[in-house]
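re: that chain from earlier
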Amino acid sequence: MREVPAMSTVFDAMRAASRHDQTPSWDIRADRLRRLKRLVRDNHEAIAAAISADFTNRPRQETALLEVFPSLAGIDDALRHGKRWMRVRRVKTGLWFLPAKSRLMPQPLGVVGIVVPWNYPLYLAIGPLAGALVAGNRAMIKLSEFTPRFSELFAKLVQTTFAPDEVTVVNGDAQVAAAFSALPFDHLLFTGSTNVGHHVMKAAAANLTPVTLELGGKSPAIIGPGADFERAVERILVGKLLNAGQTCIAPDYVLVPADQQERFVEAARRCVARLYPDIARNPDFTSIISPRHFARLAEMVEAAARSGAHVVPLTDATPDAAARRLPPVLLTDVPVDTQAMQEEIFGPILPVVTYRNIDDAIGFVNARPRPLALYVFDKNGDVVDHVMRQTVAGGVTVNDTLFHIAQDNLPFGGVGPSGMGAYHGQAGFETFSKIKPVFYQAGLNGAGLLKAPYGKRFERMVKMLMG
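^ sequence. v structure.
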């Protein structure tokens, strides 16, 4: 726990610096963003190698696509639009208060805390950090102990890129994470499991620290009756098997028409054979992050089988605990009270649920906690619109998976048990800012009429105001 006092000292220095320069200029913010961009761009190969080593194997191509590219795109978006976002905004003033003026003044909150998970350690650090910096804040980042090589490298890169009172990385175990969450940040963003999110929110509540919680849950994919079936299966499998399913917005289960289950199984087998031939030795297939996570997923499959579900392997490969490679499987006829249907899976296991009509599928989704993501496949716009209007989810991609997270003009966040608050693009700027309302009274105004002692003139004025 030696890191905890140092952590408090760094926080105090950051808070003092933020109070000294309460609203940094655009030039200062842009300089910080450009330095962050150079950090990612100039070190992406070393970062990919460190992440791969932490996973035992994760292809550098996945890190480039899923972490480096969106990180750089998010920074570029902030550089392109940040100066406009930070301008004071004119808003209308109530008729009775003219010629006074009303304005909205964006200001930095101060010191932002960012808790980063292990599954996408670069992107889920850089995305919130870019939002915090473009809004003019200082930031402290707590990285996961499950990615020690990346965490050590990133801490060194940040140390050589930023002053300690601009951006600082904290590494350590769960005790350090708990102490980090208990610091009196001006805003705290946590990405991780719903279970840990409860503890983070409780710690933040002691300081009345506002929180953004990016959690998870069971994100459904609905194959509608009018879907391009083969393409839908492929896009669901692609979204599911990137990073071996260790993605918070991966399709967690799929809803298919009752007469299409076997067709889905056969199409899924063909798809996996195309995507990952010889999957046991294919370097494009990511390993499970740790022995504990591998054991949890293996037990989830076994528990489903014991409960009466059918386990449908999608390849001939067998699980390899030493390399932590878990070949993808489908689960059919899964009882709804099994672990696989109750918990977020976070691995290459995909339950298949059948439905009779689209309203049954919608009812199945709505009977469960609101998900972080929802995917619907159908060529009929009326069907898609019906699903959109009758379900609530953190975000949606139609006729594909995952891509809504990469749109900087779309806020990213959960709803209910899958999270609260949002960021990305201008939404991130707003999250990490106080949009301060300011009323400028005019020199010539009627406010002097609205005061005690109350008499007939006051009564007439109030009657006019009330219409």
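The domain at 220-406 is CATH 3.40.309.10 (Aldehyde Dehydrogenase; Chain A, domain 2).
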